Amino acid sequence: MRVNYHTRKPGRLRRLLQASLLVSAIAGAALPAFAQTPLTLKFAHRFSSKHYLWTDAGAVFTEQVKRASNGRIAFELYPAGQLGKDYFNLLRSGLADIAIFIPSYESDKLPMSSVAELPGMYADACEGARRYWKLARTGGVLGDSEFARQGLHVLFVAAMPPYTLMTTRKPISSLDQVQGLKLRSTGASMIKAAQALGGVPVQIPSSETYEALSRGTVDGAIFLHYGLPPYNLEDLTRYAVDGINLGGGVIAFAISQQAWAKLPADIQGVMTQAAQATQETFCQGLDEDDRKTRDDMVKHHGHQVTRLTPAQINLWNSKLTQVIDAWLNDMQAVGQDGQGVLKAYQATNGQEI
């Protein structure tokens, strides 16, 4: 499922850094300072330097590592796809050492990671990140298979707050009212979710959603509240459904195994601690911003949220099981153990690690 990776308003980086400096200080206290040229790691990603996946995650991580290593580690940054967008080859060739991966964009190489994008897999960004991490880390079913096959060591992960159904002209309080609605959808899981509920998925990029909604090309969208303001959709998506979870999106921050193996053990420890601190701080910020955005829309934009009854929630969820069944069939078709990965995911929990 493709995620709305928009540019955030600046300002939270300072607070995130302050919250994590104690962790960096504790880790760094055990490391001696060296008067030597630092080891430089090349960090490549597809986003701008102002994008929130960089400012609130990547930059927080790199700053912690630099501080906690007493300057023994430095980073050379290549944002906006400057080195190219085939991050697997960039890491294999050594042109880059660290990259940000969006599994839904790399479905041919990371197919089973899409398990975390299925409907109902997690309730919020922190639960999603913690669950996905337990599979993607070294020792996890995905870390030791999918990521290891690509020569990757996952440092930390992120999950977007879950998506829901939003409409422009009328509230939705029952499944019958979804029938035939044209819904903006992107990504395999989102498209299948729209179809399972009786809607008609229309694949439209985020940048074109405003025009599609305002012209009535679509009747609504599968979106998250936090993703609306960057595209000026607050006054168009007047209604939302609460109580239903239409899936989400996950992201992995990974270093090549060859670069990881060259790092001293104490530096690996610093990076591991900084990565976990960043993962927690970042997911908490995402959940907070999603709630704040929703509350602001209700208060200032006339946004209405309809809470489904327990019976309706059960009915919607029974339809959404089709998405999981279809995913299992897709995994089987490409020779992947989807059933095993799904069971492993369901065996995790979203508690802190």
Structural description of this entry:
By secondary structure, the protein is an alpha/beta fold. It has 2 domains: 12-159 and 249-290, Bacterial extracellular solute-binding protein, family 7 (D-Maltodextrin-Binding Protein, domain 2, 3-Layer(aba) Sandwich), CATH 3.40.190; 164-247 and 300-342, D-Maltodextrin-Binding Protein, domain 2 (3-Layer(aba) Sandwich). Helix content is 43%, strand content 15%. The protein has 11 helices and 11 strands. The strands form 2 sheets. A 6-stranded mixed sheet has the order 7-6-8-5-9-11, with helices on both faces. The longest helix has 36 residues, at 265-300.
List keywords for this structure.
353 residues; alpha/beta; D-Maltodextrin-Binding Protein, domain 2; 2 domains; six-stranded mixed beta sheet; five-stranded mixed beta sheet; 11 strands
How far is the N terminus from the C terminus? 26 Å
What fold name goes in the CATH topology slot of the largest domain? D-Maltodextrin-Binding Protein, domain 2
Using only CA atoms, what is the Rg?
A: 21 Å
Beta strand %: 15-25%
The CATH class assignment of the largest domain is Alpha Beta
Order of helices and strands: HEHEHEHHEEEHEHEEEHHEHH
CATH second-level architecture of the largest domain: 3-Layer(aba) Sandwich
Number of helices: 11
Going across the biggest sheet, name each strand in turn.
Answer: 7-6-8-5-9-11
What name goes with the CATH superfamily of the largest domain? Answer: Bacterial extracellular solute-binding protein, family 7
Mean residue pLDDT? 90
> What would the principal axes of the Cα set say about the shape?
globular
Q: Count the E strands.
A: 11
Helix- and strand-based class?
Answer: alpha/beta
Which residues sit in consecutive blocks of at least 5 with pLDDT less than 50? none
